[in-house]
Each structure stands twice: as C-alpha cells, then as structure tokens.
Model the fold of this input.
Amino acid sequence: MKLDPGFIYDAFLQLLSALPMTLLLTGVPAAGGLLIGTGVAFIRHYRVRGLHLIVAGYVAFIRGTPALMHLFLVYFGSPVIIDFFARKLGLDFNSASIPILYYVFLAFSLTAGAYLSEFIRAGLLAVDKGQVEAAYAVGMTALQAFRRIVLPQALAVSLPNMTNVVIGLLHGSTLAFTVTVLEVFGKANIVANQNWKYFEAFIAAAILYWGITILLETASARLEKRINRYHRGGVA
Amino acid sequence: MKRTSLILLIFAFLGVLIVGCGSNGKKEGSGQNGGASAAVSPTAAAASPTYKVQKIVVGTTSVFPNVSFIDANGKLTGFDVELVKELDKRLPQYEFEIQPLEFSSLLLSLETKKIDFIAQIMNKNPEREAKFLFTKEPYSYFKTKVAVEVGNDQIHSLDDLRGKKLYIGSSTSNNAYFIEEYNKKQDKKVEVVYGNGGANDLVNLLRTKRVDATLQNDFSYHFEKDADGKEALKLVGDPLFENGVYYVLRKDSQELSDKLDEAIKAVKADGTLSKLSIQWLGQDYTKSLKE
Done:
C-alpha cells in the first residue's frame, strides 16, 4: 500500500469547505440537547407527577437504540406525522418544504438530550441535601438556594461528561451524510471518488476531527478550572 | 506546557506512522514483485495436469440490485457475481472466493491485499489507472442518462437541469466527475446534492422534489421502485457518456489480469456473457456504441 501525502494535504483543504456544516451539526444539537436534557433532568429530579414516567421512557428508549436509528425514525417518520396534521387542520403545507437539515437537528438533539439529562441529573444528585437545607436555614429562597448552592456544584460535576457528549455529537455528525447532508466525512468520500485515494482522504478527515476534538477538550479543561474555583474555599 | 508537549508527541507519533506506512508500501511493493514472479510457476505449470490451484479473493458489494445483491434466499448473486463464477470455471489454476464489502472499503481492501480484484461494474479514468491495474477487455458497456421521476415532464436533457438539483451517489464511478466537468463550462450550474444512499430513499427524494433528477445507467434505473413496486424513474435525453466496465486489480497482478482478459474474451465469443447480461440486466450490454 502506497500513500500519497500530497493528496492528504489537497483533501484536507477540500474538506474545509464542509467544516461549517459539521460544526453546525455539532453545535445546534448540543444546544437543543442541553435544553431537552435540562428539562428532562428537572422533571426526573423533582419527580413531576405524570411527566417523570414519560421522560424516563424517552431516556430509556434513546439510550437503548443507536443514533442512526433516531435519525431514520425522525427523517422518515416526522413527514408522515406533519402531513397528517396538516391535512387534518386543512393547512396548505407540505413536509417536503422542510429542509432535511432540520430533521437531522431534531434527531441529534433528541439523541443528545437523553444522554445529557442523565449527566445533569447526576450533577444534581451529587449536591448533598443538607446543603440545601442549610441554605434554607440561613433564609435563602428555593430559587436562591438552587442558583447559588446547587447549580455551581452540579455544573462542575456534569461538565466533563457534557464535553464527552459534545465530542460524541461531533463524531456522530458523520451519520448525516446518509440523508444527503454533506459534512466532512461525506466530503472525504467525494474527494476520493475521482482518484480512489480513499485512505488519504480519510486520514485528512481524521486529522480534522481530532483537531476540533483537541480544541473542545482544551476549552472544556479551562472551563472546568474556572467552574471548580469554589473548591478552594470561600463563599461564592 | 506539559500538555502541549504531550499533544506534539502524539502528532509526531502519527507522523511517523504515516511515513512508515508510505515507505512500508514501497518495500512491500518490491517484495510483491518477487511474489508475482513466484506466482508465475503455478500458471506455467498449468500446461501439465499437476498445477497448484491459487486462491483469489474477489471483492464486490451486496447492495446493487441485479449486479451484486442478496436475493430472496439470502444468497449473494447478480450479473457481476455470476460472471465471476463463470470465469472461475474457465480458469482452473485459480479458485475465486467472493467477498461482499462496502464500496469505499473495496479499494482499500484491494490495496491492503485483503482482496485480489474487484468486480463491481467499475469504470476507469487516467487518475485511477495511475493507482490501480484494470483489465483490458471491457465486459460490458453502459450508457449514462439523466433520470427523472416517471411523472416529470419538465426535464428533457441535462441542460434543463441548470439551476435545479441533481442527486449523485458518492459511490458511483464516474457521475460525480462528469457533472463537475460539465459545471465548469456553465454560467448557471447544476446544483449537485451528494448522498451515500444510506437511507435508500432516492425515489422519495425525487417524488418530494427535494431533488429534480439523478444520473442512471441504461439498465439500473429499472431497479428504482416506488412503494407499490412499480418502476419510479424514466430516462430522458441523449446518452451523456458511455463507459466500459472492467475488473480492478493491484499493479502487481498483471498475470491475473491477463488471464481474466483471456477468460472474458472466451465468454464473449461463445455467447455466455450476452446470456448473463440478458438474464440479469434485461438486455445485451456487452457491445459498445461503435460495434
């Protein structure tokens, strides 16, 4: 097997054109997942009546099935549901006018939400109940106790795992090419189509993914340091 | 500081790995030449009845309807698969074993010697010929045309597609190249939507107007069915280009390539190839436009 290092470089430059899509496929589901995950974690932590069983089912289902399947379920399933309700309500609306990218955002957000909810919940559980009682004892309201006592500590516990989820989303974004959303890995397949130098193109893609991952890890490490400051003592 | 040097170290390691791969390849290459000349002896001995049978692994995919696919009985079959079996019968010095793989890993598997040649209606171009060896005798010719949904009467040629969306699969041999060359000459370009076919929803993409057309071979468009099992595509316009199809081998396999060419000529001459083409592809595609 012979490598063409020159083509690794060429491929790398060509892959950059697909990088914004990959970042979008990471960032949007990360934000969407954080919203869903936070909601789910609170519902489960405070055992909101009726709802907490439903969201527990959601978490169990998503964590029990592969991300590619979530993508296909949303991609094939939601047009059917949307068109059904559009007909029922007599709306002049066709699901085909929704860009495929939105389905991918939704699917990946649902995937990330389930995992994130568990990490957020773990953070909430990590804060000793006695601390909250102590907060009440010194006259804090429930909101104050949460914002000033629970949240800073819960966040510090959850952060490393949350970084993991974001990195997972970055790597999982390669699945989007199955539904014609062109991201870095899909582009790697295309740039190699002409001369069949697939290995070189995949190496270029690997370097790109690794590079972004290192940036994410560095950012997370800095944030972790900042967020863990309370450990040094003193009052927040 | 410590962290940065660790990362640098890892990258340096990766660099060594890549360079190592490259130089290894060269060494292996020269070693392989020796291997190839050694492999001559069994074939030279083929004249006498006591030759040694050499095992050859043939790579193909399992997702191309009627070409190489899994049939209702779970058996790998199709035009390419059955042709390879036919050639195997005519080449007693070789024993072919067919290995279905994913398209992009076919070529890597060939390079890393997990398989010995590829049978997957492959087209050639000069860049590919620089990297791989192709058989000389094409075993079929396919004409590529614009394909649209059956009910579409707006698009009659490639030129009608300018400003519209054209679906191109990432694992099709020459379509992506053709359309990129075409676009270079146009002011108003055809918008290309790439996919790897992973969701198997080409017909749905066309029907919901997410894309307006795709490129298909003159035989393969029959295989795109709608939910009712009816043919969902039709071809429009003149053929855009014609491709001969070949087997793909490593550069060190000239011997095997020559034997395959001989066998292809033989199945062409006695009509077996035409018969297989009609059986699997619905028509005799073994002659070029010129013939």
